[in-house]
What does this fold into?
Amino acid sequence: MKKYINGILGLATVAILLITIEGQRRQIVKYKQDGVIVDSLRQELFNAQAQLGRYELTQEHMKETNPKAEQEFEDYFDKQTE
It folds into this structure.
């Protein structure tokens, strides 16, 4: 009887170990996928910030070279695009 109990306990231990390993593997895969999403979002944020910076530089240039057009741009941007 003792042989059977040791065998059953050994099998149960191996089964629990395998279940734990599989659960951790799934979590690792999920975290890797989340990391890809975060990297992608950071790239999108960088692109949006770069484009915004170009718009701001263009607006400053318009303010210096054609203040009337820049004022029209600001008015349209502030009031017509909400």
User: Anything to note?
Assistant: Residues 2-79 form one domain. The chain has one domain: 2-79. The radius of gyration is 31 Å.
